[in-house]
Amino acid sequence: MEPLRHRILVTGANGNLGRRLLRRLAAVHELRAAVRSERAAAAVRAAGADPAPEVSVVDPADAEGLRAAARGCTHAVHLVGILKESRTSRYADAHEASCQALVRAAESAGLERIVYPSILGARPDSSNACLASKGRAERILLEGRTPALVL
From residue 40, how far is each of 18, 57, 79, 98, 149 by CA, in Å? Predict the structure, then answer.
């Protein structure tokens, strides 16, 4: 019996975890990677996944762009996030806005499940700004219509 193949959307696929995940999953699932820039797309293409995933360049807070990227996929692994804020990268945008967009995209694209690796200690009332934002992001996903698994 041949294993069940899914088409999986991996957001934030250009990071270390994303590239490793693409290499591991490529042999058993069809993959689509969503990244925010052409530079990130090049990193995904150079990651060595075989077969190489389809790559979509999309703003992670753009629900319509994510819906287009998720069309035809059954699952999503959401890896978009930051550990440290900068002038151009804020926790609320990286964590919460991207999760809100993915929840909206998942509903209209028909995703069956979202998997979200979080951070130990994440909770909305944390005194640590990163952990509080990750906790709010978890809540957004868990309250969405598409079933979500937070790791």
Answer: 11, 8, 13, 17, 26
- pTM (2 decimals)? 0.95
Q: What is the number of alpha carbons within 13 Å of residue 81 lying toward its C-beta?
A: 25
Q: At residue 2, does pLDDT exceed 70?
A: no
69 to each of 23, 25, 55, 92, 109, how far by Cα in Å? Answer: 19, 18, 9, 22, 9
Q: List all residues 6 or more positions away from 138 whose beta carbon is below 8 Å from its beta carbon.
A: 116, 118, 122, 150
8 Å CB contact between 106 and 114: yes
